[in-house]
Amino acid sequence: xxxxxxxxxxxxxxxxxxxxxxxxxxxxxxxxxxxxxxxxxxxxxxxxxxxxxxxxxxxxxxxxxxxxxxxxxxxxxxxxxxxxxxxxxxxxxxxxxxxxxxxxxxxxxxxxxxxxxxxxxxxxxxxxxxxxxxxxxxxxxxxxxxxxxxxxxxxxxxxxxxxxxxxxxxxxxxxxxxxxxxxxxxxxxxxxxxxxxxxxxxxxxxxxxxxxxxxxxxxxxxxxxxxxxxxxxxxxxxxxxxxxxxxxxxxxxxxxxxxxxxxxxxxxxxxxxxxxxxxxxxxxxxxxxxxxxxxxxxxxxxxxxxxxxxxxxxxxxxxxxxxxxxxxxxxxxxxxxxxxxxxxxxxxxxxxxxxxxxxxxxxxxxxxxxxxxxxxxxxxxxxxxxxxxxxxxxxxxxxx
Amino acid sequence: xxxxxxxxxxxxxxxxxxxxxxxxxxxxxxxxxxxxxxxxxxxxxxxxxxxxxxxxxxxxxxxxxxxxxxxxxxxxxxxxxxxxxxxxxxxxxxxxxxxxxxxxxxxxxxxxxxxxxxxxxxxxxxxxxxxxxxxxxxxxxxxxxxxxxxxxxxxxxxxxxxxxxxxxxxxxxxxxxxxxxxxxxxxxxxxxxxx
Lengths: 400, 195
Prior knowledge:
- The complex is a heterodimer of chains A (400) and B (195).
- Chain A has 400 residues and is α+β, with helices and mostly antiparallel strands.
- Chain A has eleven helices and eleven strands.
- Mean pLDDT of chain A is 89; it is low at 1-38.
- Helices cover 21% and strands 36% of the residues of chain B.
- Chain B has helices at 2-26, 30-41, 187-190, and strands at residues 46-54, 61-69, 75-82, 87-96, 99-104, 109-111, 116-119, 125-129, 140-147, 153-160.
- In chain B, strands 1, 2, 3, 4, 5, 6, 7, 8, 9 and 10 form a ten-stranded mixed β-sheet that branches.
- In chain B, helix 1 (2-26) packs antiparallel against helix 2 (30-41).
- Classes of the chains: A alpha+beta (400), B alpha+beta (195).
- Chain A binds chain B through residues 2, 8-9, 11-21, 23-24, 26-29, 80, 82-87, 90, 94, 100, 102-103, 105, 181-182, 184-186, and chain B through 41, 44-52, 64, 66, 68, 70, 114, 116, 118, 121, 136-139, 150-156, 158, 160-162, 164.
């Protein structure tokens, strides 16, 4: 089946010196095309890759995600990093549209875009390379050590972040395979952390996800495409200039001790959180989006939302949204002692991690009752460069 | 030789197309004019999708992609030029006695109307020989296809690593064995390391 002539003609290269960097949508290998036409249409939704900001931040949560931390090879400099970014950009442009990457070894796996997003981040190590020193934003550094942390090197720090997410696990696995393969010689994977939510068909797009403690997780979030979101998440001005339109990202791997959590009664679990498990409403309200009333007291004088409840500790004295949370659950089997190895890949995005994220984390580390059942075992920070237009590449404002 | 024939045919096609445009110019009927313009555009039209090149330390590389003939007549690619070297060949890969061998494609690649030619590792491809300097992953290689019919087309191919398509190269000598030791090039040049 061929597309209409008009779309073909608009991409034709009939004259001398015409440049054909553009991809023809219909010119996939025949085998890939037949697989696509066999699809029932589900999974064909694509998230635009190009734009002022990278996709995968403002994008409603997908069902599957993976955060991959890579370390740059010793000899990789600014020009080499630019070449990797051009290749990754090309891969992402095609794969997010449901087209095979260039040199795709399994093109049949690329035909379901399933809202695939690819988001690239630079860790502090990038800025130790020649030509890039002095370009590091001040806030881009490992978080301060918190007393609750039990960080493991295999989940901590990295020079590069590749964050992939999609509603289809095969789409995700294929994107990961192609893009990691293309990083060979430039960077080596330090960690890959896979996470998930409910299958896309089983939940409303944009709805708050549940974590494996059963809690709605991500209620207090800026709403996409609002002034508040822009202000909290996207970097609007310089310092450094190359990052305008980008954001900062922190990834914390938080293990949940569910066997211990199970020992609590349901009211005790809700007191620890400060919210109801079913609706996610604060204990002082009736709907998920109701603001918690920290002044409310029971007749006996006790706080309705205890001093040590997670929502109160997170809010502090400010009680307003500070950053975007976009977490995924993980479940990696069982620990040697038989306990489940599961928890949360807590991903947060903020224009300035140091002023927006770290103070909240500091309060939580001190007083949050949930610390009894959760342990941070991984931590990494990244600068997420702005998006790019067709013909450009991610990181061009830093690397060109 | 092939280049010369291609140039001759190309001039003929250009002349025909120019004639069509002249006719269109004489007509006051806008519909006819549009039709004639379309005919002229379809005199020779190839589109290249998914172009890429094999990253290589040297001496050889190759470029790949899907070339589609959207015109109503066959078009032959008679030769290619690239920014990476001064020496380029059109290659096909043939199976003989269970062994894949690549060799120069006699007469170039002819693409039937509304058909596509897939250039891929282990199949038909454009061989880039004696590259001037290493082609690194992410580099752009400019490729020009010279056609027997119509103007050349130029596109940009991004370099990527590939491990696929490693075949011995048959220089087309009279020995069917294609024995590498009998070639006039250094044996390391002859082993077509496509990976």
